[in-house]
Amino acid sequence: MPFEQYEDLLNQVKECSLFSRWMRKDATGRESSPIELLLLGTLQYLGRGWTFDDLEEQTAINEETHRQFFHVFILFGSTVLYNKYVKAPRTKEEASDCAYEMGLAGFHGCIGSSDATHVGLEKCGWRLAQMHKGPKLRMPSRTYNVTVNHRRRDSFEY
Prior knowledge:
Elements: H1 3-15, H2 35-48, H3 52-59, H4 63-85, H5 92-98, H6 100-104, E1 113-120, H7 126-131, E2 141-148
């Protein structure tokens, strides 16, 4: 991720009330863990497969703090970032515009290609672990399905 994108994401995190506990002092007056390191840790967890223990060793921030921040970041991503960046066609014309490249490839009527990504869950309770085990990972995981066009840009505006 380019540094400018990281800075933009960091500013969005700092402005979001979901992260308010990391933006103020605690009840004893101690400063919170640096939100910059917590965000970097979350990106390492998602992008490089680091564990929360790895993050604790690299940042000197407790792994439980990283885990709690990660779960709030996932909520942030599935609400704030989703609403800001995910755009779906709303009209027949927009869907037809998205289907152009797929039609060239012989997939007439498709608006994009889909795939699933799996995010492993550490410290998952036993009951939840049984419900979240799948064939892809040996550990409990959440699966997210993604559909994209192939233009590397918004294909429509609304």
